[in-house]
Every structure is written in C-alpha cells, then in structure tokens.
Specification:
The protein has about 425 residues and is mainly alpha-helical. The chain has helices spanning about 25-35, 45-50, 60-75, 85-100, 105-115, 115-130, 135-140, 150-160, 165-220, 230-245, 245-265, 265-280, 285-305, 310-315, 320-335, 340-345, 355-365, 370-430, and strands at about 5-10, 15-20, 40-45. Helix 9 (about 165-220) packs across helix 10 (about 230-245) and helix 14 runs antiparallel to helix 15.
Length: about 425
C-alpha cells in the first residue's frame, strides 16, 4: 500500500504532520478522524514509492501528475478571502441556514453568486468536501489562510451543539464589530499622518531649496561677518540634508531593517508592543482596543461552547499584541491548575481593575460570556472616545509643530538681513 504524508489539526487547533500507510486518500482521512485529527493536506509520498520498486501504477502516475498541478497551484498562491468577503460570506451563510436550507445547498448558492474568483473557489472547494463526506470544519480547514483557528473552533463547537446558524451569526457579529473597530482607528490616523507628511515635505523643501539660496546671499554680502547662531544652525542642518541625503536615507533604511529583524523575535516584538501599550496619546487606544478584542473573542468562544482552556489558547494566538498574549498565557496556566480567570488576570497588571471586577462578577453569577460581551462593548465606546480625543488633540499640536518649525526657519533667514541692511546702509552713507 502507498504511504501518504499528511498535515492535520487536533482538537486544540494545533498542527500535526506525519506519514501513514493506507489504500487511498479517503482511507487516510478516515484513519486520522479515528485519532481525533482533522486533515488539511494529504498527498502520496512518491519517494517511498520509488524506493519500493521504482514502478508506478497508472493510478499512481495520475496522482503524481495531479500532485504536480497541486504544487503549481501552491506556488502561484492559494486563494485567500479578504476580510470583507469573509464577513459577507459568514453573514449570508448564517441567513441561509437560518432559513432552513441545507449546508451544501447554501454553499452552492453562495458559490454561484460570488463575484470574486477567490471566494467562488474557496466556497466551491468547501462544498465539494462536504459532499464528499467531510464535516464543515474539516472542509474549511483546507484554507487555513482564510479561516483561522478562532473561526474553525467556533464552527466545530457549532457542529457539536447542532446550532451552526447561531454560531455563524455570532461569528458574523464578531467579525463586523472587529472590522468596525479597526476602521475607526485607521480613519483616525489618516488625518494626522497626512498633515504630518505635508508638514515634513514643506520643511524639507525649505531646507533643501530655499535655505541654500539664502546661504549664498549671506556669503556674498556678509563675507567675514559671523552669522547669528540660529542661522548658522539652520544652514548646517540644510547642508546635511542636501549634501548627505544619501547617508540619511541609508540610515533610515538600516533603522527600518533592524526594527523588522527585532520585531520578528519574541523579545523584540514584546518590547515594541510594550512601547505601543505605554506610549502617550496612542497608548490608551492600543490598550483599550486590545481589551475589547480580548473580551469579545473570549466571550464569543465561550458562548459558542468552546472549552475555556481552548478558548484562552485561541485568544492568546489571535491577540495581536505580545504583552496581552503573555498575560493570557499566565491566565491559561493558572486556569489549567484549577484557578478562575479573574485572579490570575489581575496578577498580570495588564488589564484595568474595572475589567477584573466585571469578570469576577461574571464568574460568580455564571454569566461570564455575557459579561465579557458587555466589557467589549464598553471598551469599543472607550476606543471611540479616545480616538475622538486624539484627533481633536493632534490637530492643534501639528499646527503648532508646523508653525514652530517654519517660523524658526523664517526667523533664522531674516536675522542676517538686518546685518545686510546695516552693511549696505553704512557703505552707502560713506
């Protein structure tokens, strides 16, 4: 019998790889399901076939050919749904299932109406897999770049509870609220970035093109006369920007490369995330959005029936902030030892006391998922308020910054003009 290489996910969402001997791919899938694994990729190990005899059957040849096509597809890039398409797909699928349509028919309906080729392909693949006997979660697991661990675990919980349409509604709501929060933060950043870019462009233009012309005038008319300190400083900065621009660019590139390298390491990423978490003006937005995401993700998973340890592990992996991830890992380890969530969460010093108190009340009343949803909604509003406050604060700060920089350059250039007038007046009087 041929030997197959497989990639699968266990019940906790962890990826496992291995080799197994079976009659065909369907037999591999069945064997893995018995072990509690969900296969995401199965392909024949051709190297073992060559060692076994060097001759391949027509079927094996066909599979080999198919395998080359599969490799080509991978090299070109597997289809991936955009976040917006994923939201629409989840919401539409929940509506169709709630209306009483079978899963396969619902998927085929969404496949037909999909305008995006990537969406059409992914939905079609999922429908084919379900028709072939796979569960919906197994079908979605074939596209891990589109459907992350949070999505897959919630679907598995929906399958176990027999309430797929309810889970999909929760997923759709979760995705929509997360997208809304991200959009608010991005829109708040657009204005200050644009204003700052314009300010820096104007400043660079003055320093590179205008200041050198004034420098030439000063050298001709004030030969041997010392320039005011402010003027000399501005001219020196202008010389650096004009004559050593290449070195400045190289320095910026090196800084960016070092940042990216350090940001790929766990300690480096933790440090930068800690800085983001604590920095003035932007820190409150980062921390509040992280709390909102943590609360909504954990609450949605627990309300969907995902065990608390699995839910915490998923929340840790999807937090997007190493400071929060490290805190959640400590909570996970404590809960594993039999503790509740509130006390170890308080010990991390990452979450505010109000959040800890609300979680504690939720644990005592047995309504933790509902309480987490309330926390998420509260901090969504907090993010809105923080974004509005930041926007209203940044505008005058940027105007002041631009006025100070441009004003300093103008004053520095006009100060020597007084001496020039004095020199010209003195020579004219003589």
């Amino acid at each position: 019998m041929p030997i197959y290489q497989y990639t699968a996910m266990d019940a906790n969402g962890k990826e496992k790889k291995g080799r197994i001997e079976a009659a065909n791919e369907q037999a591999v899938g069945a064997a893995l399901k018995e072990q509690g694994l969900f296969p995401t990729s199965v392909k024949e190990d051709t190297s073992s076939a060559k060692k076994a005899g060097g001759r391949a059957s027509p079927t094996a040849g066909a599979k080999k050919k198919g395998g080359s096509m599969f490799s080509m597809e991978i090299s070109l890039g597997a289809p991936v749904m955009k976040y917006k398409d994923l939201m629409i797909f989840t919401r539409q699928l929940s509506i169709l299932l709630d209306a009483g349509l079978p899963l396969v028919r619902s998927l085929r309906t969404l496949e037909k109406q999909a305008k995006n080729p990537a969406v059409r392909k992914i939905v079609g693949q999922s429908a084919d897999s379900v028709e072939g006997g796979s569960t919906f979660s197994e079908a979605l697991a074939q596209n891990p770049k589109t459907f992350d661990k949070l999505y897959l675990n919630m679907i598995r919980a929906g399958e176990a509870a027999g309430a797929m349409e309810v889970i999909l509604q929760r997923l759709a709501g979760f995705l929509e609220k997360a997208a809304k929060l991200a959009a608010k933060i991005k829109s708040a950043m657009v204005y200050p970035v644009v204003v700052l870019t314009i300010a820096l462009t104007i400043t660079a233009g003055l320093m590179v093109f205008i200041v050198p012309k004034f420098k030439q005038i000063f050298m001709e008319l004030l030969e041997g006369v010392a320039l005011p300190p402010l003027t000399a400083f501005v001219i020196k900065v202008s010389d650096v920007m004009k004559n050593q621009a290449l070195y400045v660019v190289i320095g910026i590139v090196i800084f960016v490369i070092i940042y990216k390298i350090l940001n790929k390491t766990q300690k480096g990423k933790y440090f930068f995330d800690w800085v983001k978490y604590r920095m003035p003006l932007f820190g409150p937005i980062v921390s509040r959005s992280a709390i909102a995401k943590f609360s909504r993700t954990l609450g949605t998973l627990m309300a969907s029936g995902v065990p608390v340890l699995n839910a915490l592990q998923i929340v840790k992996e999807t937090a997007g902030n190493e400071v929060v991830s490290a805190a959640i890992q400590k909570v996970h380890d404590a809960v594993k030892e039999g503790e509740g969530i509130s006390k170890p969460l308080s010990a991390t010093k990452v979450f505010p006391d109000m959040v800890i108190s609300m979680i504690e009340v939720g644990e005592e009343t047995g309504k933790l998922p509902d309480m987490l949803e309330k926390i998420a909604n509260t901090y969504d509003e907090e993010v809105d308020n923080a974004v509005e406050a930041l926007t209203s604060m940044i505008e005058p700060l940027l105007i002041i910054f631009l006025a100070v920089v441009v004003g300093t350059i103008v004053i520095a250039l006009f100060m020597p003009l007084i001496k020039i007038i004095e020199v010209l007046g003195g020579s004219g009087g003589g």
